[in-house]
Design a protein that fits this description.
about 80 residues; mainly alpha; 434 Repressor (Amino-terminal Domain); about 0% strand
Length: about 80
């Protein structure tokens, strides 16, 4: 998937990957929320690509999933040098 200039597709891909990781552990949104101290509705918004999060939130999500933060970014996307200039 090609990345757009405002990052919407990137957020969507991040969210899909996070949801995949959550589902692989059979965690509900509420269970995930309890593990990482983030409201379940916010987790749902992140998974849908509707929320642009801070790095500290990435760390909390990775703790909740029991994975290294880099695993949340383990998805394919296309971009060209200069796309973000």
């Amino acid at each position: 998937m090609e990345i757009d200039m405002d990052g919407t597709k990137f957020l969507l891909l991040f969210g899909r990957n996070m949801k995949r990781l959550r589902n692989s552990q059979n965690l509900s949104l509420r269970q995930m929320a309890t593990r990482c101290n983030i409201d379940y509705s916010d987790i749902g918004k992140i998974e849908k690509g509707n929320r642009n999060i801070q790095m500290s939130t990435v760390l909390e999500l990775s703790k909740g999933l029991g994975v290294h933060p880099k695993e949340l970014f383990d998805f394919e996307f296309e971009w060209k040098p200069g796309d973000f200039e």
